[in-house]
Amino acid sequence: MARLILTSENQIQRLNGILGKVEKLQQLPLDRLTMSPHEKSWCVAEVLEHLNIAYRLYFDKINHALEQLDAIDSDSKEFKARAWQKMVIEMQRPKNGKRKWKIKTMKRFEPVLEVSSLDQEQVNVVFENFFSLHAHLKDAILQSRGMDVRGIKITSAIGPIVNFYLPEAFEFLLCHLERHLVQIDKVLG
Fold it and tell me: Cα-flanking dihedrals φ and ψ of residue 87, to 5°?
């Protein structure tokens, strides 16, 4: 089985690309951000709100982990993901512009927006929250450099069946973002 090597540089680069794409989405008119191709599909605003909900479940866990970790003097910039965590990460990662695994969203991750009555101000709040939360992710990735990231594990948002060291959690969250950008591309056609 091929190894999954994680680096903060790669993660920051990908996150910057994602943030750039979402900034472009923010320029779209309200009707494009609130339309969905069919009844069971989310619109762009709902996808972003789902991403906000999911990240909020990691926010405090990441902060707590960063507070607990010790600094280390090491030139090692690579982190090898463990096998089970690699599998969970790879299930999220899109392949060739497609979401490989269809995963049913748990109720607690579903956006609770009344799309038919969303106005520009409400959509702006979704974007503001997205940028604020993911600025936190970027800062956390940067803070984790030079820390003993094997010092503490965090429980994933899906429960204790999956626990992550910080670089694994960051990778999972990035793959989740990338997965839903593919979904947004499909929604926008």
Answer: -60, -45
For the stretch 143-185, pLDDT in tens is: 999 899 998 999 999 889 999 999 999 999 999 999 999 999 9
Would you list the DSSP string of the chain?
----EEEHHHHHHHHHHHHHHHHHHHTS-HHHHS--SSTTS--HHHHHHHHHHHHHHHHHHHHHHHHHPPB------EEEPPHHHHHHHHHHS-BTTB--S--PPPGGGS----GGG--HHHHHHHHHHHHHHHHHHHHHHHHHTTB-GGG--EEETTEEEEEE-HHHHHHHHHHHHHHHHHHHHHHH-
pLDDT digits (tens, 9 = 90+) for 92-135: 999 888 777 677 776 667 787 888 899 999 999 999 999 999 99
Question: Which residue matches tokens 């990460």?
Answer: 89
CATH of 5-188, one of 1.20.1600.10, 3.40.1160.10, 3.40.50.300, 1.20.120.450: 1.20.120.450
- Residues 86-101 pLDDT 10s: 999 999 999 888 777 6
